[in-house]
Amino acid sequence: MRFEFDPNVYQLTRQNIADLDRPIELIPGDYTVVLDRLDLPTHDALIVFVAPPWGTALDEVEGLDLRRTEPPITDIIARMAHAYPDRRMLFAIQVYEKVNVDSMAELKSKVDWSTVKTYDLNVRGRNHGILLGTRGWRP
Questions:
Q1: Bigger pLDDT: 25 or 1?
Q2: Which of 31, 59, 85, 131 minimizes the number of CB atoms within 10 Å of its CB?
Q3: 15 exposed, middle or buried (CB, 10 Å; 0-12, 13-18, 19+)?
Q4: How far apart are CA 97 and CA 25, in angstroms?
Q5: pLDDT category, 137, cuts 50, 70, 90?
Q6: CA distances (Å), 114 to each of 29, 37, 52, 55, 131, in order?
Q7: What single DSSP character describes residue 123?
Q8: Which secondary-structure segment (H or E) carries 104?
Q9: Could you report the per-residue pLDDT of 10-65, keeping only the tens digit for each?
Q10: Distance CA 135, CA 139 (A)
Q11: Is this structure's pTM higher than 0.90?
Q12: Given this model, what pLDDT does residue 1 score?
């Protein structure tokens, strides 16, 4: 998969993070490359935003198949868990209102705790949401 860097999105994200007034570092790049370069303090928790291209993973009847995103979301979680096995992690995963049941079950099996929130911004059946999932801790 080729990482597409959008400088406008990066700048907007940097501005939003600055507004939080917290020590948050935004590291753009293909996660498979960035993971190999990071040297993080062992006590730091990680917040991982996961929103890979859906490509053909979204089917209007079956919903979003989280195993068919590019790369698969479960692969991203597994790679993060392998790279940082002793870290507390919070995953914020972009989802669709309708999600393939089997793919959701598989995703939830990869985290210690999870919750899903859908935002009613569009017509029913076409809304986006977020799945929060943790590894290494429970809220």
A1: 25
A2: 85
A3: exposed
A4: 30
A5: very high
A6: 26, 29, 19, 24, 7
A7: S
A8: helix 101-109
A9: 888 889 999 999 888 888 778 888 887 888 888 888 889 898 888 899 988 888 99
A10: 11
A11: no
A12: 43
Q: Which residue segments constitute the domains of the chain, with CATH numbers given?
A: 1-39 (no CATH), 45-135 (3.40.50.150)
Pairs from 27-36 (Cβ < 8 Å, separation ≥ 24): 29/3, 29/5, 30/1, 30/2, 30/3, 31/76, 31/79, 31/80, 32/79, 33/3, 35/79, 35/80, 35/83
* Helix (H) / strand (E) containing 113: strand 113-118
Nearest Cα neighbor of 80 from 36, 131, 44, 17 is 36
No. of helices (H) and no. of strands (E), the chain: 4, 6
The answer to whether 82 touches 39, Cβ cutoff 8 Å, is no
The pLDDT of 92-110, averaged and rounded, is 93
Q: What tokens does 48 get? A: 């991982």
Interval 66-96: pLDDT, tens? 999 989 999 999 999 998 888 999 999 999 8
The DSSP-derived string for 22-58 is S------S-HHHHHHH----TT--EEEEE----GGGE
Contact between 104 and 97 (Cβ < 8 Å): no
